[in-house]
Each structure stands twice: as structure tokens, then as C-alpha cells.
Amino acid sequence: MKKLVFAALFSACAFTAQAQDPMVIRYGVDPTFAPYESLDAKGNMVGIDIELGNEICKRLQAKCEWVKINFDGAIPALNARKIDGILSGLTVTERRKKQVLFSTSLYTSGSRMMVPKDVTLETTPESLKGKTIGIVQGTTQAAYANKHWQGKGINLVSYQNDERAKQDLALGRVDGTLQNSAAAHFFFETPDGAKFHLTGTPVEDQEVFGYGTGIGLRLGDTALKDKIDGAIAAMKQDGKYQEILSGYAKYGLVAVKE
Q: Which range of residues forms the domain containing residue 69?
């Protein structure tokens, strides 16, 4: 009888402990991609994705865990269950929809060519012929360059992250980098960024650049998607979403038209 009572009490305590444990959401982020996410002087994660992710976790009474990844390894890390979601400026495209389940779109930004201040380049194949252009693996900018520039006399050099592409641009190893406009504007505020500018016409291709950015989840993880979408909807309704977004408006980040 005592054994039965003890077992019942143990089960009840275990259930209570489990009930009190918060849900954990492991977000994969590339911290070389300001203003989306980066490390501040104290080593803390900062950026619009960090603010949005923390607010979503707060509303879901969940614990956020930020996992550092290279952007090109984000989807493999998600599918290997090393992370629960990609919150790193991940653009919603039809191609990516075959690999990940997207949350409600969060924001959008354009793409342009970044070059030294004394250089001017157009983004047409004719203007770029004979040039060496840096692109970051796994990005929509890389997808655009591979689709529209490959095989047209343009040397495309791939990098694992945005920081390395910028370093080679500064060293003159590439003539320009096809750049997310918001990341470029943030870079221009730094001493190193003051030497560069955006040039040429913004590149456009709906098939490549899709419908803004969202949180990438595993295919079939509809329960988590529903919770995150609900939190985003509540943020938009009470004004918190716009409050966060307005802090990044100077970088050209805007809400996606619904």
C-alpha cells in the first residue's frame, strides 16, 4: 500500500515539474548579419530578429535559445533537429517552401550592389562582365546571381557568411558584393563601412526574392507554427510589432503587405 501511495506521489510531482518547465525554442541565427542579428561589444545578441524572437517567446511563455550557425548551414541544422527554427533574415520563397515551413512574414528589404565609394556599377550582366562579384551561400542574393549572371562572363565567388564577403571587398579581391540593402546600411554606420556605398538599380525577381522574411520551421511542425503565428498576430494587434520594426526603419526594413 505504501509503495502505491509513494508511486502516486512521485508521478504527481513529476507531472507538476513537467508542467512548470517552460517550452524552449532554439532559434538558429547567423550573428554576422546586422541589423538582423549580430553581437554587441559585450557579446550579447542584438538585432531585429533577436527582438522579435524574444517577444514571441515572451508571449508563448517559452525560453529562447540562440544557436549560432553559418547561414548556408541553417536548413541542414533545422532538419538535423539542432535548432527548432531559423530566425535569420530567411526570405520566404517557393523553393524554400519545399524545404521548410514558414511562419507569417515579418518584414522585407531590397538587394543592391555594394562597392568602394569611388566605384560605380550597374547590376546588368553587360555592366558586370569581366567583374568578380561576391555572394553569400544560401542567400537569395546568391540565388539571383546564379540565375541571372552565371555563364555571362561574370566571376561569382561564394562565401560562408557576409563578414567574409565584406573583408574580401575591402581587400580588393572582389569588385563588389550583391548585398542585402538593410545589412549594407547598417555596415555604413561603422568605420569600415564608411569606405563603401550601394550602386546600381536594385535587383528584382519575385521568384527569387519571394514574400519577405519569416521564421523557417521543420516541415510538418504545424503546432509550433500555429503558436508563433498567433504570437505575431497579437504583436501586430497591440502595436508591439510596429514598435520593434520602427527601430529599424532607417535601414529600409518595412512590413510585408498582406
A: 23-108+212-251
The grid coordinates listed for 126 are 553587360
Using left for φ > 0, alpha for ψ between -120 and 50, and beta otherwise, residue 216 falls in beta
Cite the DSSP H helix spans in the chain.
2-20, 48-59, 74-79, 94-97, 125-128, 140-148, 162-170, 181-187, 206-209, 222-238, 240-246
**What one-character-per-residue DSSP string does 106-156 give?**
-BB--EEEEEETT----SSHHHHTT-EEEEETTSHHHHHHHHHTTTTT-EE
For residue 245, give Cα distances in angstroms to 8, 14, 50, 234: 50, 41, 12, 15
3-state secondary structure (DSSP) of residue 217: strand
Query: Whole-prediction pTM value?
Result: 0.74
- Bridge partners of 62? 23
Number of domains composing the chain? 2
Residue of 181, 193, 209, 184 whose CA lies nearest to 111: 181
Q: Is residue 162 domain-shared with residue 226, that is, in the same domain? A: no
**Same-domain pairing of 201 and 234:** no
User: What is the helix (H) or strand (E) element at residue 199, kind and residue range?
Assistant: strand 196-199
Q: What stretch of H or E contains 159?
A: strand 155-159
Q: Which of 14, 23, 12, 186 is nearest to 89 (CA)?
A: 186
124 with 204, same domain: the answer is yes
Ranked by mean pLDDT, the top range of 6-10, 102-106, 178-182 is: 102-106
Inter-residue contact 251 to 109 (CB < 8 Å): yes
Which residue, chain included where needed, has cell 504583436? 235
For 44-86, write each residue's pLDDT tens digit: 999 999 999 999 999 999 999 999 999 889 999 999 999 999 9
Bridge partners (DSSP) of residue 157 are 134
